[in-house]
Amino acid sequence: MSAVASPSALEDAVDHSSARLAVASQWQLVWWAFRRHRLAMAGLVVTAALYIIAIVPGFFAVNDPSQQNARAAFYPPQALHLIDTSEDGSWSVRPHIYPYVLKRDPTTLAAVYAQDRTRKVYLQMFGQGYEYSVLGLFNSTTHLFASGNARQPLFFFGADRLGRCVYSRIMVGTQISLSVGLVGVFLALSIGIVLGGISGYYGGKIDFVIQRVIELVLSLPTIPIWLAASAAVPQNWPATLNYFMITLILSLTGWAQLARVVRGRFLSLRTEEFVTAARLDGASEGRIIFRHMLPSFASHIIASISLAIPTMILAETSLSFLGLGLQPPTISWGVLLREAQNIRSIATAPWLFIPGAAVVIAVIALNFLGDGLRDASDPYNK
Q: If you write DSSP's letter for every residue of 202-248 in order, what string do you get?
C-alpha cells in the first residue's frame, strides 16, 4: 500500500519552495531554469569539451599535424578495437588497431590499402609523442593516446593527400575555429554595447545618427562584404595577422543586431525607478550604465553571445573553404575542408569530409546552449 502525503506535508513543501525562490538571486533563478533544459545541458557539455580541446589541442592529437608522410597518402581510417582476444580464447580490455599495408589490386593494378590482421598496434594512455606547446607557456610530449609502436602512426580518421593525420589536424583546427568565434563575438559585443548603450541612454540626435548607421550596416549583403574584404587582405601577410584581420572582418558586420538589442533594453530601463534613484543619489553616468543597467540584462547578452558564436564559426569556415579566409599552413576546420573540393577526394577519400562533421557538432551544441540561455534568461516568465 503506497503512502500518501498529508495536506500539511504538501503545504510545507510548497512553502519551502516559495521561500527558496523568494530569497534566490537572479543568477540562481537563471541556473535553475537552464538546468531543466536537457538539450541545453547537453550543448553545454559538448561545448565545454570542445573548448577544453581548443585550449590544449596537442594533448588530444596523436601525430604531428604538419608532418607529411608520402607512404601514407590517403591512408584510410583505422577502426579502434577495445577487446583483445588471445590465442587461448581469453580476452581483456586493451584498445588496439590493425594497421594497413599498401598492396596492388591484381585486376586494376591500382594501389589499395589492405588491413593486416596478423599485427596489432596497442594504444597507450598518456603516452609519449611529438612535442607541442601548452598555451605558449611550456612544451610537453604527453598525449591522451599514443601508439605503442613508434614506427606505426595512428590514423583514426585517415590521412590526406600528403599523408597528414586528419584526426590530429581536426584537434589542432579546433583551437583556431572556436577562437575566431570567441574573438569575433567579443569585438562585436564591445562595439554593440558601446554604440547601442549610447544610442539608448542619450536618445535624441545621437540616437538618430547611430540608428541610421546600424540600418546601413544591416542592409549590406553579408556574404559579398565578407568576400570582398577577405579578398582585399594580402595573401603574403603572416598567419597571425591574417587571423586577426579575418576576426575583425567578421566582427565589423556582426555588431549591428546586438547594438539594436542593447538600445531597446536601455530605452526601457532608463526610466525605471532604480535608475532614477541612482541618478538622484549622484551616481555618475558611467556607474549608472555599467553598475545598474547592464547587469540587469546581462543574461540576455550572454544568450546573444552564445547564439552569435556559431554564425562566426560558419563564416570563418565558409571563407576558408572558398580560399578567401585563413590560408595554409594555418589549420582550421575551413582550411581542412578545402582538401575535399575535388572529385578524387570525394571518390577515394570521403573521410576528408569529417572536419565538416566537427563544424556541425559545434554549431548544433552552441545553438542548443544559446536556446537554453535565452529561455532561462527571464526566469520570472516561467
A: H-HHHHHHHHHHHHHHHHS-HHHHHHHHHHHS-TTS-HHHHHHHHHH
Q: What are phi and psi of 118, to 5 degrees?
A: -85, -10
Query: Among 21-25, 105-109, 243-247, 355-359, which is the least confidently predicted range?
Result: 21-25
Task: For 31-62, write each residue's pLDDT tens digit.
Answer: 778 888 889 899 999 999 999 999 999 999 99
Half-sphere exposure of 84 (CA within 13 A, CB side): 14
β-bridge pairing 100-104 and 138-147: unpaired
d(CA 177, CA 360): 12
Burial 53-62 (b: 16+ CB within 10 A, else e): bbebbbbbbb
For 374, the grid coordinates are 535565452
Give the DSSP H or E segment for 291.
none
Residue identified by cell 538589442 is 261
Calculate mean pLDDT across residues 66-89: 84
Q: At 36, is the secondary structure helix, strand, or coil? A: coil
Higher pLDDT, 168 or 86: 168
The DSSP bridge pattern shows strands 121-134 and 138-147 to be antiparallel
Domain architecture of the chain: domains with CATH: 66-164 (no CATH), 169-381 (1.10.3720.10)
| Beta strands 121-134; 111-115: pairing state | unpaired
The total number of residues written for the chain in this structure: 382
pLDDT value of position 24: 64
Q: What are phi and psi of 66, to 5 degrees?
A: -100, -5
* Mean pLDDT of the 355-377 span: 86
| Residues in a beta bridge with 145 | 125
For 52, residues 6+ apart whose C-beta sits below 8 A from its C-beta are: none
Burial class (CB in 10 A: 0-12, 13-18, 19+), 359: buried
Which DSSP category does 253 fall into? T
pTM higher than 0.90, yes or no? no
